[in-house]
Design brief:
Layout: E1 4-7, H1 11-23, E2 27-33, H2 40-44, E3 47-52, H3 63-73, E4 77-79, H4 89-97, E5 101-102, H5 107-114, H6 116-125, E6 133-134, H7 141-151, E7 155-159, E8 168-171, H8 174-192, E9 197-201, E10 207-215, E11 221-233, E12 236-242, H9 249-265, E13 270-278, E14 284-290, H10 297-304, H11 308-316, E15 333-340, E16 342-343, E17 349-350, E18 353-354, E19 357-359, E20 364-365, E21 370-375, E22 382-383, E23 390-398, H12 401-414, E24 416-418, H13 424-432, H14 434-438, H15 445-449, H16 461-486, E25 499-504, E26 507-515, E27 520-524, E28 529-534, E29 542-547, E30 550-559, E31 562-567, E32 570-577, H17 579-585, E33 599-601, E34 606-611, E35 618-619, E36 624-630, E37 633-638, E38 643-648, E39 655-656, E40 661-665
Parallel strand pairs: 1-2, 1-4, 2-3, 4-5
Antiparallel strand pairs: 6-9, 7-8, 7-9, 10-11, 10-13, 11-12, 12-15, 13-14, 15-23, 16-17, 18-22, 19-24, 20-21, 21-23, 25-26, 25-32, 26-27, 27-28, 28-29, 29-30, 30-31, 31-32, 33-40, 34-36, 34-39, 35-38, 36-37, 38-40
Helix pairs in contact: 4-5, 5-6, 7-8, 12-13
Length: about 675
């Protein structure tokens, strides 16, 4: 077994690999760019080597710099994590040439499966179901249109060397095929150094289900069941679960056996994932094979008990797999929610800055539930514009799907993140969505259920009443504290009123609160009562309440006249006023938001790639105006109405902050 391994990656996956290495008694080496000098993975490692400037193209994906770090530290093996160099055959070859083990598959498998065109041909030869498409090289945008027409719209335009949603577009028309080809080609060149593109039929009403495979160097290969990855946005997975709520045992077995057959066809060893598109009739089609550790591997670990990273290390060291297909179990249900530095209220655009607050829920495991958080950040750390926006993977486990969902809900409610925009509210909203709860999901779920973007979840009236009761109890505690500070009377509690009006958005609840040593009873105007028990004290940002015997976790902060309350994807202004003050507040006019319709504002921190118009141009609704690159993604900014450009205030190469003005219109 190895004494020391180098992790050629950063963030949460580098930390994840280090945990298994530490458990196995293996020392770990981190590499880091200037932007990551104080990163968590650097702190966790036994050694750390600086490899260059912040851009990955000058540090993390420069093979020579990683090789030099290996030489410098004497590492005997390298784990690439995912992304970066994980599927670069030349990297594995360079390590092999210096006698260092690559903790991944052999070069031949990387070359065969890492190229989507070649992999589809091999999959077809191995008897794996494949999607109709064009696997040859595509000359230009017009050639792409011709091919798309032959296949039949809609089509998927994809980078041959792609992954993680980069270099991927769906086209429904000729114009979309032209633009999709150009954008996919550009993103593929910048992200992978390979601009080859292919086109395949886009399966409507699809589910994205993948099979985890594991092989050794002695010809043994097995599958660790499946993962459902259908909750996606822009082809990027958001929530994954294992097993799939859609598959039956026969389909699971058929998909698993095909995945293993494909792996054996290329003499695959190490961990890998065979991805399939599954239609409503459970017909499945090969999508691609990822010759690396997958982002969502924790859910498989939770339901099988197999440490996939440990197995990768053991296989790289030449050991045989210690388990057979018959040993693979399916224990309970697991869900993974990806925490992204993306603002759901701004169409999920990237957000950067300092994590003023970062307090994940406590990790735990029992016979009834489990919470796991794979992360690479810490409170006070910076979220950089140079790398992927994912900052944590929150996982839950339960004996069945309903239990796993309920555990995830509580964990999301208890996850505190401040200082950046993030998608925690959106994740909570999805977990509460009736379609997700029923398992009736496809890869179009987000587009179908949130066609106009995300503006926060709407809580049902029963939950709003529980929140109102909890807020009443918190307000009473805050008022008692205020009375003590101001010294109004010796018996402070007698001076705190019992009649209040709690307002949550457009809902108003007259309440009367009566307290005792065990808690508070809140009586509503209609005579119904709720019992509230809590140890919350003013200043605590997380209020763990029990309302009518059921837990209720609120993120709270004081505002004038009440609290800001966040839970289950909702962000509420909760005011608590006396009946007279509530009557007067109802007469106050609402302040209108500022008019920004004559401005094109930068929606995220990023770099201006190009400006597509000039002063005096007449632009139409939907026309491309500019492109901004942020966190490795190119974002086209479009006109929202017909207008005339009067000023251009930014130029290519400018680094902009959120809401910086790019254009002005007449």
């Amino acid at each position: 077994m190895f004494d020391k391994i180098l992790i050629a990656n950063r963030g949460e996956i580098a930390c994840r690999v280090m945990k298994s290495a530490r458990k196995m008694g293996i020392k770990s080496v981190a590499v880091y760019s200037d932007a990551d000098a104080a990163a968590l993975h650097v702190r966790m490692a036994d050694e750390a080597v600086h490899i260059g400037p912040p851009p990955a193209s000058q540090s993390y994906i420069v093979i020579d710099k990683i090789i030099e770090a290996v030489r410098k530290t004497g590492a005997q093996a390298v784990h690439p994590g995912y992304g970066f160099l994980s599927e670069r055959a030349e990297f594995a070859q360079a390590l092999d040439a210096m006698g260092v083990a690559f903790i991944g598959p052999p070069v031949g498998a990387i070359e065969a499966m890492g190229d989507k065109i070649t992999s589809k041909k091999l999959a077809a030869e191995a008897g794996v179901s494949t999607v109709p498409g064009y696997m040859g090289l595509i000359d230009d945008a017009e050639h792409a249109v011709t091919i798309a027409k032959q296949i039949g719209y809609p089509v998927m335009i994809k980078a041959s060397a792609g992954g993680g949603g980069k270099g991927m577009r769906i086209a429904w028309t000729d114009d979309e095929a032209r633009e999709g080809f150009a954008r996919s080609k550009s993103e593929a060149a910048s992200s992978f150094g390979d601009d080859r593109i292919f086109i395949e039929k886009f399966v409507t009403q699809p589910r994205h289900i993948e099979i985890q495979v594991l092989g050794d160097k002695h010809g043994n290969c097995l599958y660790l069941n499946e993962r459902e990855c259908s909750i996606q946005r822009r082809n990027q997975k958001v929530i994954e679960e294992a097993p799939s709520p859609f598959l039956d045992a026969a389909t699971r077995k058929a998909m698993g056996e095909q995945a293993v057959a494909l792996a054996k066809a290329v003499d695959y060893c190490s961990a890998g994932t065979v991805e399939f598109i599954v239609d409503g009739a459970r017909n499945f089609y090969f999508l691609e094979m990822n010759t690396r550790l997958q982002v969502e591997h924790p859910v498989t670990e939770l339901i099988t008990g197999v440490d996939i990273v440990e197995q990768m290390i053991r296989v790289a060291a030449g050991e045989k797999l210690a388990l057979t297909q018959g040993d693979v179990k399916l224990d309970g249900w697991a869900i993974e929610s990806r925490l992204y530095a993306e603002d759901p209220y701004r169409n999920f655009l990237p957000s950067i800055g300092r994590l003023r607050t970062y307090r994940p829920p406590t990790e735990e495991r029992s016979d009834t539930h489990a919470v796991r958080n794979d992360t690479g950040v810490f409170e006070g750390g910076e979220i950089s514009m140079y790398y992927d926006p994912m900052i944590a993977k929150l996982c839950s486990w339960g004996p069945d799907r309903a239990a796993a969902i309920e555990t995830m809900r509580g964990a999301l409610d208890a996850f505190e993140v401040e200082g950046i925009g993030h998608n925690l509210p959106f994740l909570s909203a999805v977990l509460d969505h009736p379609r997700f709860i029923s398992g009736d999901i496809t890869t179009a779920f987000i587009a179908e259920e949130y066609p106009d973007g995300f503006a926060g979840a709407k809580l049902d009236i029963a939950l709003l009443r529980r929140v109102a009761a909890a807020v009443s109890a918190m307000n009473r505690v805050a008022e008692i504290r205020r009375a003590r500070i101001t010294g109004r009377m010796d018996n402070h509690e007698r001076k705190v009123g019992s009649d209040w009006v709690v307002s949550l958005g457009r809902e108003h609840f007259p309440v009367m609160i009566a307290a005792d040593r065990e808690g508070s009873t809140v009586e509503f105007g209609d005579g119904t009562r709720h019992r509230v028990v809590s140890s919350w004290t003013p200043g605590q940002s997380l209020a763990r309440m029990v309302v009518d015997g059921e837990p209720l976790v609120l993120k709270v902060s004081r505002i004038t006249g009440g609290f800001r309350v966040r839970l289950r994807g909702a962000d509420l202004k909760a005011t608590v006023l006396s009946p007279r003050m509530a009557d007067l507040a109802a007469l106050m006019p609402e302040k209108a938001p500022p008019d920004t319709s004559r401005l094109l504002l930068c929606p995220m921190p990023g770099l201006v790639v190009r400006i597509d118009v000039k002063v005096g141009d007449e632009v139409f609704d939907g026309q491309a105006l500019a492109m901004v690159e942020a966190m490795k993604m190119e974002n086209v900014l479009r006109a929202e109405r017909n207008a005339k450009v009067s000023k251009i205030l930014a130029k290519p190469g400018d680094s902009l902050a959120v809401d910086d003005v790019i254009l002005e219109f007449e």
